[in-house]
Amino acid sequence: MRRTAILAMFAALILVPGTWLHAAPTTPPEAGPLTAQAGSMGILKVDSNVPGAAVLIDGQEVGVTPLMTAYEAGTYQIEIQMLGYEPHKQKLVIPADKKVVVRAELELVAGTVVLNIKPDGCTVELDGEDQGTSPDVSLDLVSPGSHSLRVTKDGYETFEQTFELKKRQELTLTIALEANSGVLVVNSVPDGAKVFADGDPLGATPLRKPDMPSGLHSLRLTSDGRADAFLTVDVRLGEETSVNHVFKKEFGGLKVIPEPTDSKVVFDRYPLGKGEINLETVEPGVHKLRLSAPKHLDYYEDVLVKAGKTTTVRASLTPTGAPGDTGPRIKKPKGNPKKAVPVVIAIVGAVTTGTVIAIAAANTEGPEPDLPPTDYLFQLP
User: Which structural domain range is residue 227 located in?
Assistant: First the structure.
């Protein structure tokens, strides 16, 4: 009876679909690091004498010390890093279902660089990275080896130096930047005049530029309804140079038509640009005009500008090597009044053979000479 029941149950299992017992197919485990097996984990604990050190396993950062984490079992390379300390490296074996502890004793190797920089307000770069502005710069953890230092400040020469730092060395560097500029102060009556230097805008008066390169500069000051001012100023290294200008209400005009048409035009040392120039507010008087172009001789002319009138200059530059090329072309202003040069006689002294008289100028009429006359000594009988 029992045997019959068992056979019946076995037959029922065969007839019912989906109930046949069979072994499920297995998926091969994925390959893991070295000896790791799929699904096998261990516990990793990492500590160091300096908290906050970075923990890297096979080059990948997994946290900072102190660190406790579950990690797949296997064999790895572990590295503990801290800025200014010698890195700790070792082989790491994490067993399955077990705990492994790594303790790193990091050795301080970094040195300190003390900076004494004058003046204050200098930007400090170490190995191309900004470190801040002096005097609030601290270089406390600098790794041993070769480093490059760069110190800059507007108006001063740039300081650059390469230095070697040893383990735990304290290095002091004293740096004094040399000024390569001065201070330019420009005031005008009235205020609000636009100021240009060597063709570039600087701002409006009252103006103070603390980092003006030293040397000669050509200034142009403009104010609505008043004559433009063209000035030359000498800015001295590390000094303050002041310009005070009172604008005049009288002015005339100047039109310059050059040939070649792309000639550079300089007016009272100030670069106006290239090509045809129209100045509508020029202070009356004689002004210096210079034109230049490639493969042409420079053209110079003293231009007389009268109040309420416009002076037109048609400047034709002579090509270099052309017939009649005798040097730069120089013209004097038309209508320049002739001057009678007075005779100046001075009794210099008496000698036994007569009296020495110095004639300082010839008694002639004509244009004013470009150079001062030469003194002549005559011996009277």
Answer: 187-246
| Residue 224 sits in the same domain as residue 170 | no
Count Cα neighbours of 375 within 13 Å in the Cβ-side half-sphere: 9
pLDDT of 356 above 80: no
DSSP 11: H
pLDDT at 138: 86
pTM over 0.70: no
The residue behind tokens 């579950």 is: 70
Instruction: Let me know if residue 346 belongs to a domain.
Output: yes
User: Can you give the pLDDT at residue 178?
Assistant: 87
Indicate which CATH number applies to the domain containing 327: 2.60.40.1120
25 occurs within a structural domain = no
Neighbours of 8 (CB within 10 A): 9
Q: Residue 13: inside a domain, yes or no?
A: no
Question: In one letter, which amino acid is 329?
Answer: R
pLDDT 10s digits, 48-80:
999 999 999 999 999 999 999 999 999 999 999
Same domain, 317 and 358: no
- Taking CB atoms within 8 Å and a gap of at least 24, the contacts of 57-65 are 57/92, 58/33, 65/104
pLDDT tens per residue across span 195-224: 999 999 999 999 999 889 889 999 999 999
